[in-house]
Amino acid sequence: MIKSGLFKSLLRRNKLVYFSQQAPSFRTDENDPLKHTLNHVGQYYRVPPKERKVYLYGGLPKSYEIQSKTFNETCLMVRKPSIDIINCLKEIDYTKPAVRFVLFGKPGSGKSLTMAHVLHYAHNAGFLLVHVPWVGNWMRKPKELSNSETREGFFDLNIDAAAWLVHFKSQNERLLSTPELKTTQEHVWSKRESTPKGATLLELIDHGINRLKYASECVIALAEELKELSKTGHCKTLVAIDGFNAFFYPRTRVFKEKKEVVPPNKITLTEAFLNLTKFDWNNAAIVVTVDQIALYEEDQKSYFPRYLLGKEGFEHLDPFVPVFVDVYTPKELKSCMDYYRERKWIRYFPQQDEELGSLSANNPFKLMQLCTSL
Q: What is the DSSP letter of 73?
């Protein structure tokens, strides 16, 4: 027989071994966003390498992308706003008009990463993704500007449009190969060039990529086709646009030859994505963010949707479901610090979490900046 003292000692030792084999409390072993629930809030999950291509051409903030390469893994924290949207996407009636969700909050609170989590879910759930990583890039530093050949007074950003088509093609590579996704009408580009009715969407996309002068028009045509295909049940679409309020701010850094400012409503790409964010179609959902840093002006007084969208933008989206992205909760802050310590990014010292939380005001981006290398 084993003596009681020895038995208790072995039991304690086995418990220590057992607990040491468990995943850390700040991580979850559930890496499939389809299975994430409120029980996973405040925990990190690893994006599998095969599914990392969702963010190949955009979707993660540049600073977070650099951090992920440094840590040699892409991990996202499960947060309540993303779980709320995911639960809604599971339950809404897709026969009804498209539901619009608007993510808002202070700069650096995690709106883009919340959208990244929703994108990962939608990709695994079989949605066709229509994702704009950051509208501000088009309105602040376009790669090229040209007069539209089909719309008088409008301007094309054809290089940016072609780059977006590459992004769209990469995110939806598997779905675009299905034979059901075909054009519902003929698209004439010139006297000699056209995309016939019944052509695959890949042909339409490749035409915009290979024939740069038609890239912006191809994006507009693709938007119309996606709406029709969704209405007829050939696909289920998620539209995700980061920095959506930049479509409604009159001051841009897009200039004509005489340094005259081109407003967003005169840029052809704007027409395509405003068309996709209307509620006149079904079998779709729309998630957008509004952000103070999406605008050219830096002295923004409020982060609320009504202020950032203005009257025109607010009326365009109304009615919508507002989703507030707050700063880290105490649990989320501790998880973030534990993750940094696990990756040997920071060294531990007493009262570390409280001090860094106070300095950053629990803001995720500010906390990341405080912990970055010198």
A: S
**pLDDT tens digits, one per residue of 115-154:** 999 999 999 999 999 999 999 999 988 999 999 988 888 9
Torsion angle of C-alpha atoms 139, 140, 144, 145, degrees rounded to 10? 50
Binning the chain into helix, strand and coil, the percentages to the nearest 5 are 50, 15, 40
Say whether the peptide bond before residue 263 is cis (omega within 30 degrees of 0).
no
Give pLDDT, residue 18: 39
Taking only the tens place, the pLDDT of each residue in 145-158 is 999 988 888 999 99
Residue 306 DSSP SS3? helix
* pLDDT band at 253; cut points 50, 70, 90: confident
**Which of these, 102, 131, 112, 117, lies nearest to 288 by C-alpha position?**
102
Range list of H helices, 39-79: 62-71
The predicted pLDDT at position 16 comes to 40
How many angstroms separate the CA atoms of 84 and 280, rounded?
A: 24
One-letter amino acid at 135 equals: V
Q: Which residues contact 222 (CB under 8 A, 6 or more apart)?
A: 165, 168, 201, 204, 205, 208, 272
CA distances for 208 relative to 43, 194, 224, angstroms: 41, 11, 15
Contact 327, 106 (CB under 8 A): yes
Instruction: Choose among 254, 231, 239: nearest CA to 94.
Output: 231
pTM comes to 0.91
Residue 289's beta-bridge partner residues? 103
